[in-house]
């Protein structure tokens, strides 16, 4: 496997798809060695040189599923770099919840980063770097006071995974 596509909003609400069906759709788009990881829209695949995987996923899945599936593709090396930049210390991790990684389409400018990071607090640490933002909620995501929508307005739409899920995917890409 050389890449992973993180799909936004899969298996939430009415957007239900089995891993087998998702894998078949992605294979039909021409990707090879397709595997899914958990039922939350993580697709590992081999990309052909010169193919815009993001555009191919979004157009192809929209046609097959009938709705836009926002897609955030990372190579193995890009995912490894993103995970190497998780900014939270061991002490912070022990005192708070699970680190979250939100993948973005593009790296935001300095003004957008400042707007997003202004929502950081002792209870919800927010740090932006490159095409990802990192969040460490003190009590977990469901009880957090973080204004997630405001952060998203500043940085653009993304899709979030736990650091643990990302590390598991990285191992499968090795």
Question: In a few lines, what is going on in this structure?
Answer:
The protein has helices spanning 19-28, 53-65, 76-84, 90-95, 110-117, 148-155, 163-173, and strands at 3-7, 32-36, 42-46, 71-75, 100-104, 124-129, 132-137, 158-162.
Mean pLDDT score: 94
Unreliable stretches (pLDDT < 50, length at least 5) are none
Biggest sheet details: 4 strands, antiparallel
Number of domains: 2
Strand percentage? 15-25%
What is the distance, rounded to the nearest whole angstrom, between the alpha carbons of the first and last residues?
7 Å
Task: Give a count of the beta strands, DSSP E runs of length 2 or more.
Answer: 8
Class by alpha and beta content: alpha+beta
Q: Summarize the amount of helix as a percent range.
A: 25-40%
Query: Could you spell the SSE succession in H and E letters?
Result: EHEEHEHHEHEEHEH
Lateral strand order in the biggest sheet: 2-3-1-4
Backbone shape: globular
How many DSSP helices? Answer: 7
C-alpha Rg, in Å? 16 Å
Protein architecture, described:
- Strands 2-3-1-4 form a four-stranded antiparallel beta sheet, sandwiched between helices. A four-stranded antiparallel beta sheet has the order 6-7-5-8.
- The chain folds into two domains: 3-74, SP0830-like domains (Alpha-Beta Plaits, 2-Layer Sandwich), CATH 3.30.70; 79-173, no CATH class.
- Helix 3 (76-84) packs antiparallel against helix 7 and helix 5 packs antiparallel against helix 6 (148-155).
- It has 174 residues and is α+β, with helices and mostly antiparallel strands.
- It is 37% helix and 24% strand.
- It is globular.
- It has seven helices and eight strands; from the N terminus they run βαββαβααβαββαβα.
- Strand 6 (124-129) and strand 7 (132-137) form a beta hairpin.
């Amino acid at each position: 496997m050389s890449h992973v596509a993180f799909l936004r909003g899969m298996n939430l609400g009415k957007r239900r798809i089995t891993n087998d069906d998702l894998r078949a759709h992605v294979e039909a788009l021409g990707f090879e060695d397709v595997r899914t990881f958990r039922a939350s829209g993580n697709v590992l695949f081999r990309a052909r040189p010169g193919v815009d995987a993001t555009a191919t996923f979004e157009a192809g899945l929209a046609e097959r599923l009938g709705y836009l599936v926002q897609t955030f593709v990372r190579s193995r090396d890009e995912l490894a770099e993103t995970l190497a930049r998780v900014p939270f210390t061991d002490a912070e991790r022990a005192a708070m919840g699970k680190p979250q990684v939100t993948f973005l389409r593009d790296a935001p400018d300095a003004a957008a980063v400042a707007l997003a990071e202004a929502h950081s607090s002792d209870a919800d640490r927010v740090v932006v770097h490159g095409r990802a933002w990192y969040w460490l909620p003190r009590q977990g995501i469901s009880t957090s006071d973080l204004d997630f929508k405001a952060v998203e307005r500043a940085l653009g739409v993304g899709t979030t995974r736990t650091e643990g899920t990302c590390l598991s995917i990285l191992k499968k890409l090795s």
